[in-house]
Amino acid sequence: MLRRILFWLALALVIFYFAFPLYWIVISSFKTIADVTRATPAMLPFVDFQQTLANYSSILLGTNIESETGVQAAASLGEFRERLLNSVIISGISTALAVGMGTLAAYAFSRFRIPGEGDLLFFILSTRMLPPVVVLIPIFLFFSNLGLRDSYLGLIILYTSANVPFVVWMMKGFFDEIPLEYEEAAMVDGYSRIEAVWKIVIPEAIPAMAATAVFSAIVAWNEFVLSNLLNRNYASTVPPYLNSIVGVGQVEWGRLAAAAVLFVIPIIVFTFLVRNHLLRGVTFGAVRR
Amino acid sequence: MKKMLVIVTVLTLVGLLSIGPVVAQDRPNLSIVWFAWPPCDLLSSLVADYPDANVTVSCVPIGEWRNQIFADFAAQGGADLPILDSQFMGEAVAGSHLVDLTEFLQTELPFDDYNQTALSYYAEVPQGSGTYYSVPVITDTRMLVYRRDLFENPDVMAAYQAATGQELRVPQTWTELLQIAQFFKGSEYIENGFATHWINDGDLVQTAWNHILWSWGGELWDSATYQVEGVLNNEVGVQAVEFAQQIFQTAPDGAAAFGFTEVVSTVCNGSTAMIEIWYGFGAAFTSAETCEQSPNLGFAVVPGEVEHFISLGGQGISISAYSPNQEAAFAFVSWLQSDETQIAWVQGGGFPGRNSILASEEFLNAAPYNPTFAEAFQYVKDFWNIPEYAALLAIQGEYLNLAISGQMDAQEALDLIAEEQQAVLDEAYPDGPPAP
Amino acid sequence: MTNLSSAPRTQTPRMRPRFGWFSDRWIAVSFLTPTMLLLLFMTVFPLIWSLYLSFTEWSVARNTREAPVWVGTQNYVDLLTNERTWERFVVTGQFVVPAVVIELVLGFAVAMLLNRKFAGRGALMTGLLIPMMLSPVVVALFWRFMMQGDGVLNYYIEAVLGVPPVQWLTGRSVALWSLVLVDVWMWTPFMMLISLAGLSAVPKYLYEAAAVYRASAWFRFRHITLPMVTPLLLIAIIFRMMDAYKLFDQAFVLFGLGGGPGRSAQTAALYIYQVAFDQFNTGEGSALGYIMLVVIIALANIFIRVLNQAKTGQ
Fold first, then answer.
1. CATH fold of B26-140+313-381, please?
2. pLDDT tens-digit series, residues A53-108
3. pTM for the whole thing?
4. Structural contact between residues B373 and C143, judged by C-beta atoms closer than 8 angstroms
5. pLDDT digit string, tens, across residues A16-46
């Protein structure tokens, strides 16, 4: 009995530690400016404070929650929607490209004898170890010269190359699990290799590709440094925006919380979708279940 | 699955198509970059009325303001009309990133009407050269915001008299300000005494402390010989840091991380009796909706001590050498500086660069703190305006923040600042300061 | 994952397969080329360029229209003889080691806790995984909000525990620990996930055998659980170390480029960014990047060696 109580107590502590920050942000997003900066924290909606949707409407519709002489003009608030769209476009396209290219490369690594295969795979893996800040200078110069700063294309290329190594390693692991006999049987039946890949292997790999895609999309969705440095004026994504709306005149935590919640909802949905692949996803396929 | 693929492809295509510009615009596009504060928002709403171009204003966090502008310069692009802080001008001109506006200022704009102090600090590079690279867009300095209701409350006044033997009034010297702040700290009337932005971010702790140093009679460096060692870390410097340490004690918990937002909040939510901040933030105090204590606030000139100096704020608007729309940019600046726009600017809460507007009824009546502005602006003083500015600023910010928050000895901090800054200067100018 | 039992359905075979002229060799080359080209272009090429820049004195902001000036190894000599450079790496180490150790211990403990059946386990697991999927910027902003001087953490510390408020973001000796706390919140679930994978792979009969001999709980843990889980944990440690070493976003959001009070939380990545994109000393920044790269390669090699030893020793 005592062990039972201890177990549930320990569990409760763990849940509290991980859940409290999330809870705090969610309730903060429903608070007015006065409530969010109140010295005594208000914890329970309906009981401690009167909840409001003003933060959400301000972020989504660009309506101003202050008076006319208020602190922040409506113009810069509507930006969230724009940025969200940019985030969707950039993560979406870069993910599609990374999964497409990476899957093909993974198939080649899995099925053909490639000279120097181990070295190539290690090279691909090693690009993950590279601290982004190390290549930031040349990328910055390079993008500046080619006019890729402040463009969708620039970030799409960057995020694609950031995700491709991951896709190659993940998908190679999955292809290794699909028996060779599948394609061989098809080829004996008169299909070419390309047809066998397209008609037999890819459909078999779709669930794995979907999980890989979600992981790649999350990486692109959350990326901050490159977007913050390269796309400041145009095609900017959400994370730098969140960092920049911390506030000007008055602390605007309520609004920030609302923006953060809106930005995070897709991640939570995705996390739920890939929960069974999580282990592989976060370890580059190094750990299988 | 196939259906899914088709749907995804279609959505992607739709997304791609919606990226491209929908209609060709007749009007040129102009962009302005500034840092996030109320005047930037005001400018955003003002430019909506400009008929001859589509003007967009981006207000970036102050910590990234400078590096965004210079990153754009480095890429030979960016905003057509960057608004640079006075200290960035030297660096920007050194990289030939800005268009020379001397002739434009003298022929197209009422040159003599500009406040000469502002013009010289914001626009003239090098100072005294008669070459100008910007047009003042906002003049600014620091103001004292205090809880008038407390200062005028007979009970508080009596208690203060009893405690200190002096009359409670708007402080005339920093020492008096400290005494009042100490009286309020932890008192029954209010929680904290005095707050300002002591954070090591951008130039926040530096601008908050520099004018204390100057008012004590100290200097950051000798601008003629580029000497820091011995000029900054002397007895006067130490006094100025130790004073800041004492005044910091009267601030709320965590004040070492206070930026603009926290400073505004702490007076607005009624937890601090006095704050000091840029006039440009004035708009944050005028609405009771966002600032609970708004009706109780009073505004005054920041005091001096042995001498009277106040940190200079404010900026000029420049034209980027990389702008493809320079003609439109010139036209926009002319519009921005016209009497009509300037009146709208001050009525919205801005501070003008022209003496005639500064003296106008419209300006003086626009906000409760405006009448004190002209006096405060007499005392302004600026600091380094050389390409090594960023390195010097970072060094000062690091140790100053530590010292003021009581985590480092005043003398030690100043010695370290002087030593490291001197090293930066000596490396950049091995043969002494450049010839004027 | 993939359903191996169901045989693939092939349609009516044709005599002449389409795309038959694509030999396997061609397919291999054309499948690999786009990926390899992209990676070459986006990592190798930039690395060569920044190697060149690291031997020059040049500022992209001040000397925009001038060519870089070759100064040989000057930047490296300056940096390697400068205490400040090493301080950044020490700070990084002071962050990485405690963060990874705490994540490991806590993650493993939580995994032990969850390694049993109880109602709501699945939902709880998924919930616990959310932190590491969130954007580091969002996580750091959440915590910055809570860690403010008058924030919710300090309120409860004062009101409930009755101790003076903690200088989370402003205390010179606290700031780096605040960063550790944020990282622990974010990445403990990762350690937990891997530990759990390891734990669930331990064969039940080993424990049953141990029970027969009345082995103590400690004995079971030390001689059954730990050896079975260690190889997986080593992989997890390597991944976490690499990521923690690169940490930028959270430190940037919590403390700004300056790295908080007295640079006490300025990690190496933050410092490079400051030199390269705030002070715009492009040559020096490139050299710093290379130093960081050499350090991480050296560390990675050491760890991989340790890992291999652990694997062969098993």
1. D-Maltodextrin-Binding Protein; domain 2 (3.40.190)
2. 888 888 887 765 543 334 444 345 567 888 999 999 999 999 999 999 999 999 99
3. 0.88
4. no
5. 999 999 999 899 999 887 788 777 788 888 7
Query: B residues 347-376 near A, CB within 8 Å?
Result: 349
pLDDT band at B10 (very low <50, low <70, confident <90, very high): low
Tokens of B349: 């809460």
ipTM of the complex: 0.88
In a domain, A164, yes or no: yes
- In this structure, is residue A21 part of a structural domain? no
Question: CA geometry: angle at C129 spanning C123 and C131, to 5°?
Answer: 130
Span C82-313 CATH architecture: Orthogonal Bundle (1.10)
- Identify the domain containing residue A113 by its residue range: 80-237+277-282
In C, minimum Cα distance to A194 occurs at: C19
In chain B, residues with a C-beta closer than 8 Å to the C-beta of A248 are: 36-38, 40-41, 59, 260-261, 284
Closest-CA distance of chain C to residue B357, Å: 36
How many CB atoms neighbour CB A189 within 10 A?
Answer: 17
Contact C96, C184 (CB under 8 A): no
CATH of the domain at A148: 1.10.3720.10
CB B317 within 8 A of CB B83: yes
CATH 1.10.3720.10 region(s) of chain C? Answer: 82-313
- CB spacing of B200 vs C279 below 8 angstroms: no
**What is the mean pLDDT, run by run of 10 residues, along chain C of 314 residues?**
41 56 83 94 91 94 89 94 90 96 94 87 86 91 87 88 88 94 95 89 85 85 86 86 92 88 91 92 94 89 79 62
A53 part of a folded domain:
no
Name the residue with higher pLDDT: B143 or C303: B143
Please give the pLDDT value at position B17.
46
A contact chains, 3+ CB pairs < 8 A: B, C
Please check whether the two domains, B26-140+313-381 and B141-311+386-428, share a CATH topology: yes
Q: Does A244 touch chain B (CB under 8 A)?
A: yes
Q: Where are the domains of chain B?
A: 26-140+313-381, 141-311+386-428
Which H, E and C letters describe chain A, residue by residue?
Answer: CHHHHHHHHHHHHHHHHHHHHHHHHHHHCCCCHHHHCCCCCCCCECCCECCCCHHHHHHHHCCCCCCCCCCCCHHHHCHHHHHHHHHHHHHHHHHHHHHHHHHHHHHHHHHCCCCCHHHHHHHHHHHHHCCHHHHHHHHHHHHHHHCCCCCHHHHHHHHHHHHHHHHHHHHHHHHHHCCCHHHHHHHHCCCCHHHHHHHHHHHHHHHHHHHHHHHHHHHHHHCCHHHHHHCCCCCCCHHHHHHHCCECCCECHHHHHHHHHHHHHHHHHHHHHCHHHHHHHHCCCCCCC
* Structure confidence at residue A71 (pLDDT): 42
Q: Dump pLDDT digits (tens) for B251-278.
A: 998 899 888 888 998 999 899 999 999 9
The architecture in CATH of the region B141-311+386-428 reads 3-Layer(aba) Sandwich (3.40)
- Count of domains forming chain A: 1
Distance of alpha carbon C194 from its chain centroid, rounded? Answer: 14
Per the DSSP assignment, residues forming a β-bridge with B29 are: B54
DSSP state, residue B112: G
Chain C contacts in chain A segment 192-251 (CB below 8 A) = 192-195, 197, 199-200, 204-205, 207-208, 218, 221-222, 224-225, 229, 239-240, 242-243, 246
What residues 279-308 of chain B have any CB closer than 8 A to a CB of chain A? Answer: 281, 283-284, 286-287, 289-292
Q: What is the pLDDT of residue B7?
A: 59
Cβ contacts of A233 on chain B, cutoff 8 Å: 31, 33, 58, 72, 78-79
- Backbone Cα Rg of chain B: 24
